[in-house]
Design brief:
transmembrane; transmembrane helix; mainly alpha
């Protein structure tokens, strides 16, 4: 008694006049080992992209601190530039210490598993930075500083950082595990 031949079914397609499609357009079936390899490759690629993007994001607080660092030496009241530099340094600290896909803000991280910090700094700093950036922007506005002095930069940098981390958190390679199908090789 011989074993029945296993073959994959291809859907019927009507012939087209200017057909550029072929049998290569139909998706091939991957066995478990191919699926594992593909998922591993996508996970590695995602981690590499997140790391690169995080390094690029670190340039934002660094570049935004230049005008505040210069203002520190041009003013007789250095409190406002010090607060701006503190806000930017805190944003950079959060970029370095938090996982690439976490913001530290519970409402935003709830879709991607949330983040429980190790101590009060990790727990409260993500909420203090936007408050500090807002205080710097309002104090710069009240003081009558022009928009050219960039008192709004710490808030914009923190906002851009949070948006970028939310976007990075939207891609979860762990979800790929649920897409496996039960095809067994011959």
């Amino acid at each position: 008694m011989s074993a029945p031949a296993v073959r994959s079914r291809r859907p019927f397609h009507y012939p087209e006049d200017n057909s550029s499609s072929s049998d290569d357009d139909t998706p091939s079936i991957m066995d478990e080992q191919e699926q594992e390899s593909y998922i591993r490759t996508l996970t590695t690629l995602n981690a590499t992209r997140n790391k690169t993007f995080t390094h690029l994001l670190l340039l934002l607080p660094l570049l935004a601190s230049i005008p505040h660092f210069l203002a520190l030496f041009r003013t007789t009241a250095p409190l406002l530039p010090l607060l701006a530099l503190t806000s930017l340094a805190s944003t950079a600290y959060l970029l370095i210490t938090l996982p690439p896909t976490k913001t530290g803000i519970a409402v935003l991280d709830s879709g991607s598993g949330g983040y429980e910090g190790d101590g009060p700094l990790a727990r409260y700093l993500p909420y203090l930075v936007p408050a500090l950036a807002t205080a710097v922007a309002v104090a710069g506005w009240v003081r009558g500083a022009g928009a050219g002095e960039g008192w709004w930069l710490p808030g914009v940098v923190f906002g851009a950082t949070v948006v970028a981390k939310v976007v990075m958190g939207g891609v979860d390679p762990g979800e790929l595990e649920g897409l496996r199908y039960g095809y067994k090789g011959a």
